[in-house]
Write a structure and sequence with these properties.
- The structure is a homodimer.
- Chain A is 35% helix and 25% strand.
- Chain A is α/β, with parallel strands linked by helices.
- The longest helix of chain A has 25 residues.
- Chain A is globular and about 75 Å long.
- The model of chain A has no long low-confidence stretch (mean pLDDT 92).
- Chains A and B meet through helix 1, helix 2, helix 3 and strand 3 of A and helix 1, helix 2, helix 3 and strand 3 of B.
Chain lengths: 425, 425
């Protein structure tokens, strides 16, 4: 029998009524004759409430205990969802990450899945029950301690479970009708996509699109598992995230047009650092990047200016929350590296165009930069891949830049997109 | 090194400030040079909030899922308490009942502890850390499912843990300064007791005194573990629950007066059922009790009237919440048993006097019934043990009956007792 893994985010189970609605959908799916396993996030804002409690109790909560605390959120939602499924006449059994064999590294708050041993879930399914698994959490086989996967963790849980159980598809339910050409909250004329490749989805996620988390897409690509992103508030078909071959097959069968550009994303969470007056000697740039990565900060873009008088400027972007730690580490290393100054600029945005068709269609970058110029957006940094163009501009210019690109590449829909509620993790 | 197990109820950890206060007390205890293990209940009203959520989702929540849901309450409080202990400079590690090896039967909502394998907690202590264990919960080794112990479960968790780890004492922290001669919420002149025997405490608990749960006292008696009931809101010494020999030793050393009466308790939760016109044949009474116990109802007192014309009336009291099920079962069995009618009376109270000294002091029952008569309280049923006299009266008469007995046996204090907050489970 075929198996569907369904993942419901926090906004889909925000209250008792939503939970009952989701339970009906799960039971309806099972009654079409397939096996169903469910992954669920914490209810609505409950994770934020737990974080708030922790802050009230402790200025710097112990990481192990923070994971213990936060995992209470999914425990509540999964138990309630299992109760609601029972009421619809199907047996359901909830499982913690630990009970479900979701094995992770021991890094609290950002654990990585290293294995899945879903024996109890498989037994539940073979006994006709619907297993309901807590997303976002696991257990370290080394320490036996409870861990959490960090942002977007529940999506990764769902994909890892689907891969481990050999599911046919992993359905990720959210509060929009799939993956859009841009965030429908800021671009009302954004259109839902029929399908995107794993590679495009990875680029979109890295570019700040919040619909699916990077790690979850990487996991699906590695195991070639189809993801179906759709809304729990409607019955509409959503967006399929597939291999490039599978997308090509859809085009060949006439089920979708050949896609050139899949979307425009933006990210306001990065900051720009310029290290001024770096001695232009081999190894100096490397030592700067080493210092920054030593504090766990991820560097995104890098630009190095032309050297003048034996000195050069290195500009980079990194996660805004990492900027202070990176600067402190750089200032400490300043005597040994010998640069002149650091300039910190949090007021930037990254705007990104993604499309697998860029490879075969010349002129994309010309259209891209013409559109930005006509919109009066000044480009401060540029970075590209085979299927992506990213620029850094002023944060204030980002909405105008996104809208201009969305229009210039013919992505605007005729009508505004439907947005149902806030997103869960 | 000596080991103290401290148990904090819901009212002691009701909010962030209370949690920090409790953490300070735990750390202070550890710094006197003893090892400490902690058992904690869910915060304040959080269990009721979870119950409310369950009711919103499902009219009859699945029992397995209810246990999964409710155990989220202690998960939150124990993680927060461990964080707060960390902040005070000591290492703390929280453990679920399952992680702590709290093995129970598989009966959801009313599981019994069948074994404790606290290896992880012992390791934590040997590494200098303070283990913080979730009260009220365990795991069934048969089903691997999470279970809860029912009302008063956290006290039982604490005593079971203390016994398994060979602790010197189990401190039960509550919102009053110990075990009182009567409930200080209804008898303001109630006095705290220096010590009571396990037997007296069992009688008091069975009589409706809410300070310690029956099962927890039974567990302590079986393992001869000293319990120290005290307030988390003051530093005052509370009440010791000890073996009769240990209490006698205290008296001998002049640390307390010889106790005659330890207290007066009352219970408004029982109901009275009268089965009218039962055929006065051997076995008829037995079949009535069998029918009632078949629905899981616990019968407390029983009185059988003198038989008239070959028929007799049997009156019994049982938990008010069981009365409807018991009546339904009796009505179904009516044709086979052949009684005439059932009279249901929920408006009763049980008032109980407990004292190990009753054995040696004649005249206690004379004083008892004279006091009730003078207070105008009509006695409907009587039941006694070696160290207890219980009567059933109108619920409205109970406060007057308790006050009269408290005065008649010289239990009134000179000043009113201090009550700090509401009790947790």
């Amino acid at each position: 029998m075929s198996l569907v893994v369904q993942k419901y985010g926090g906004s889909s189970v925000a209250d008792a009524e939503s939970i009952r609605r989701v339970a009906r959908r799960i039971v309806e799916t099972k009654r079409t004759g397939v096996d169903v396993a469910v992954v669920v996030s914490a209810m609505g804002d409950s994770t934020d409430e737990l974080l708030d409690l922790a802050t009230q109790v402790s200025p710097h909560p112990a990481e192990r205990e923070m994971d213990m605390l936060l995992t209470a959120g999914e425990r509540i939602s999964m138990a309630l969802l299992a109760m609601a499924i029972h009421d619809q006449g199907e047996e359901a059994r909830s499982y913690t990450g630990s009970q479900a064999g979701m094995l992770t590294t021991a890094s609290h708050g950002r654990a990585q899945i290293i294995g899945v041993t879903p024996g109890r879930l498989q037994r539940a399914i073979s006994e006709g029950a619907i297993p309901v698994l807590a997303g976002f959490q696991g257990v370290s086989p080394d320490t036996k301690d409870v861990t959490t996967l960090g942002r977007g963790g529940s999506d990764t849980t769902a994909v890892a479970l689907a891969a481990a159980m050999g599911a046919d598809v992993c359905e990720i339910y959210t509060d929009v009708d799939g993956v859009f050409t841009s965030d429908p909250r800021s671009v009302p004329l954004a259109r839902p996509l029929k399908a995107v490749t794993y590679e495009e989805m990875l680029e979109l996620a890295a570019a700040g699109a919040k619909v699916l988390h990077l790690r979850c897409v990487e996991y699906a690509r590695r195991t070639d598992l189809p993801i179906h992103v759709r809304s729990s508030f409607s019955d509409r078909e959503g967006t399929w995230v597939l291999s490039a071959d599978a997308v090509a097959a859809l085009v060949e069968r006439g089920e979708m047009e050949e896609p050139i550009i899949s979307g425009v994303a933006h990210d306001l969470t990065e900051a720009k650092l310029t290290v001024v007056g770096v001695p232009d000697r081999p190894g100096e740039a490397a030592s700067i990047f080493e210092v920054i990565s030593s504090v766990g900060a991820n560097i995104d873009m890098i630009v190095q200016n032309v050297s003048t008088a034996g000195r050069t400027d290195i500009t980079l972007t990194l996660g805004g929350s990492d900027a202070q730690a990176a600067m402190a580490a750089l200032r400490e290393a300043q005597p040994s590296i010998g640069f002149a100054d650091i300039v910190y600029d949090p007021g930037v945005a990254k705007v990104t165009l993604v499309g697998a068709g860029m490879r075969r269609h010349p002129g994309v970058s010309a259209t891209f930069f013409r559109a930005l110029a006509e919109a009066g957006v000044n480009v401060e940094m540029i970075s590209t891949s085979e299927i992506r163009i990213s620029v850094v501009c002023r944060a204030d210019d980002a909405p105008r830049a996104v809208a201009a690109l969305h229009t210039a590449f013919g992505l605007d829909a005729d009508t505004e997109a439907v947005v149902y509620a806030g997103t869960g993790r």
